[in-house]
């Protein structure tokens, strides 16, 4: 994907939705979630829109 959403910065270049030209997401919106019952740190959150290239 070559498009970018300047509102969503992303450095995960292995994601299908990573802008190929800059460190941004190409989606219009993302879903952020958690795998913890009581998240307390950044490591407890996940981009649930991620898809491997």
TrEMBL record:
<protein>
    <submittedName>
        <fullName>Uncharacterized protein DUF1540</fullName>
    </submittedName>
</protein>
<dbReference type="InterPro" id="IPR011437">
    <property type="entry name" value="DUF1540"/>
</dbReference>
<dbReference type="Pfam" id="PF07561">
    <property type="entry name" value="DUF1540"/>
</dbReference>
<feature type="domain" description="DUF1540">
    <location>
        <begin position="8"/>
        <end position="50"/>
    </location>
</feature>
